TrEMBL record:
SUPFAM superfamilies: MurD-like peptide ligases, catalytic domain, MurD-like peptide ligases, peptide-binding domain
CC per GO annotation: cytoplasm
Gene3D superfamilies the record matches: Mur ligase, C-terminal domain, Mur-like, catalytic domain
Superkingdom of source: Bacteria
Domain Mur ligase central, residue spans: 53-197
Entry protein name: Dihydrofolate synthase/folylpolyglutamate synthase
Pfam families in alphabetical order: Mur_ligase_C (PF02875), Mur_ligase_M (PF08245)
UniProt KW keywords: ATP-binding, Folate biosynthesis, Ligase, Magnesium, Metal-binding, Nucleotide-binding
Gene Ontology annotations of biological process type: folic acid biosynthetic process; tetrahydrofolate biosynthetic process
GO molecular function: ATP binding; dihydrofolate synthase activity; metal ion binding; tetrahydrofolylpolyglutamate synthase activity
Entry annotated with the keyword Ligase: yes
Catalytic activity from the UniProt record: (6R)-5,10-methylenetetrahydrofolyl-(gamma-L-Glu)(n) + L-glutamate + ATP = (6R)-5,10-methylenetetrahydrofolyl-(gamma-L-Glu)(n+1) + ADP + phosphate + H(+); 10-formyltetrahydrofolyl-(gamma-L-Glu)(n) + L-glutamate + ATP = 10-formyltetrahydrofolyl-(gamma-L-Glu)(n+1) + ADP + phosphate + H(+); 7,8-dihydropteroate + L-glutamate + ATP = 7,8-dihydrofolate + ADP + phosphate + H(+); (6S)-5,6,7,8-tetrahydrofolyl-(gamma-L-Glu)(n) + L-glutamate + ATP = (6S)-5,6,7,8-tetrahydrofolyl-(gamma-L-Glu)(n+1) + ADP + phosphate + H(+)
Length: 458
């Protein structure tokens, strides 16, 4: 196959990959390592230092905070994450900017050429995307590369790159078809991103024993939350005023260690509006990568960090991609701390068939007044009727069922009262559908305004 026969646009490449590699997940490193070696990805480090993040929940927020913190300290930084919500380009960010189509296409071409010669190697959609992203990062060779594991850890394509610092955020049951239901086995898979004699940040106090055991077995240097590093709440001495009322400003302190063992302390950090365990883990990982933490830089970074689809507010609507009980419990806690007396909190819920719907419903229920279950599309889709049945068995009020998230949102828009809040959650697919609807509406408004301007100027 010649280069001229390959696609030239990103959309065409993604269509080709979806058709050519129908198996979405095929855990194992042998095939992807062969192609990586052909591409020269093992010849030299892809970045001056690499931080790899694994876990069931909290990976995306930890990566986002690492990126923001690194940039605030003046480092060049590349981030690879998955999945995306609206555009594939979201998966690769170079110094905070989404990768251009041309760079991604060049990466896909590099992977395809290496995949085919001298003997063809089969790769999944995710494996091709990961190799293309690593190729692009290596070309930039930033001071820091932050890599998010897609699923598991030990056998994930991202794990072909040796991490200078590993981070394990949380371990809970998810993706049972691939990782099983034994929490210790799942923990062992996540721990597979660790490397001997290198540091690993353990960002949860409820990790299964297998994680620390694996670190000890291979000689990784483990830094545990509430042991080697910790965080604590405090309040500002200068309260803010909202509508004339004085309100305490929640702040927090962090304590940790440098790679040398020196004790570190950062005080009066702003609330990042993301789990503080993950923020604390990000700070510890950055310190262990050799960055001398500056408190003012950390304050700037944490006050400005944002991540799409994680407690993302737009007016009365809140988007969160949480899809397991652990993530749902954190969302419920956030909603409960900001609730207003007499106001309703409604939940537009769409989930996949292989997720723990009962556990998510139970975790969210204390913060939700009424529900709108929706159907999703695809092989693993769960019907709204199934969710409605589960909700009713749990004693929850179902106000409407819909065949899609968009249909539910349109139905709800004319029925919202001024004080209502709507949580959209349960799956990346649920959140991306609503985001896509808003994006399309915004594009239509812009096009309409442009047409009106052209008419007036004619």
């Amino acid at each position: 196959m010649t280069d001229s026969s390959l696609p030239v646009t990103l959309d065409a490449w993604l269509t080709r990959l979806e058709a050519a590699h129908p198996v979405g997940i095929d855990l194992g490193l042998e095939r992807v390592a062969v192609v990586a070696r052909r591409m020269g990805l093992f010849d030299t480090p892809i970045a001056e230092r690499v931080i790899t993040v694994a876990g069931t929940n909290g990976k995306g927020s930890t990566v986002a905070m690492l990126e923001s913190l690194a940039q605030a300290h003046g480092l060049s930084v590349s981030c690879y994450t998955s999945p995306h919500l609206l555009r594939y380009n979201e998966r690769l960010r170079l110094d905070g900017i989404e990768a251009e189509d041309e760079l991604l296409v060049a990466g896909f071409v590099a992977v395809e050429q290496a995949r085919l010669a001298p003997e063809p190697v089969s790769l999944t959609y995710f494996e091709v995307g990961t190799l293309a992203a690593l190729w692009a990062i290596a070309r930039q060779h930033p001071q820091l590369a932050v890599l998010e594991v897609g699923l598991g850890g030990r056998l994930d394509a991202v794990n072909i790159i040796d991490a200078d610092v590993a981070v394990v955020t949380t371990v809970a049951q998810d993706h049972a078809a691939f990782l099983g239901t034994d929490i210790n086995v799942i923990g062992r898979e996540k721990a597979g991103i660790m490397r001997a004699q290198r540091p690993v940040v353990l960002g949860s106090t409820s990790l299964p024993p297998s994680v620390s055991e694996y670190a000890a077995d291979i000689g990784a240097r483990a830094y545990h939350l509430d042991s080697e590093f910790s965080h604590s709440s405090t309040f500002s001495d200068s309260p803010e005023f909202v509508d004339g009322d004085s309100r305490d400003v929640a702040l927090w302190n962090w304590a940790g260690k440098a790679a040398s063992g020196q004790a570190l302390c950062l005080e009066a950090l702003p609330d990042p509006k993301l789990p503080r365990d993950n923020a604390a883990a990000a700070l510890q990982a950055l310190a262990l990568s050799g960055v001398m933490l500056d408190v003012e830089a950390c304050r700037r970074a944490l006050s400005s960090v944002r991540i799409n689809g994680r407690m993302q507010w737009r007016g009365q609507w809140c988007l969160d991609v949480g899809h397991n009980p652990h993530a749902a419990a954190w969302v419920a806690e956030q909603l409960s701390t900001t609730s207003s007396p007499g106001a309703r909190t409604l939940c537009l819920l769409g989930m996949l068939e292989d997720k723990d719907a009962d556990g998510v419903i139970e975790a969210l229920a204390p913060a939700i007044d009424a529900w709108l279950p929706v159907s999703l599309e695809g092989d693993r889709a769960r019907k709204a009727s199934d969710l409605a049945q589960r909700l009713e068995l749990n004693g929850q009020q179902v106000m409407h069922q819909a065949d899609s998230p968009v249909e539910a949102a349109i139905w709800l828009q004319t029925r919202l009262e001024p004080g209502d809040r709507v949580l959209v959650t349960g799956s990346f697919l649920t959140v991306s559908a609503i985001m896509g609807m808003w994006h399309q509406a915004s594009s239509d408004d812009e096009n309409g305004s442009r047409e009106q301007d052209e008419i007036r100027n004619a």
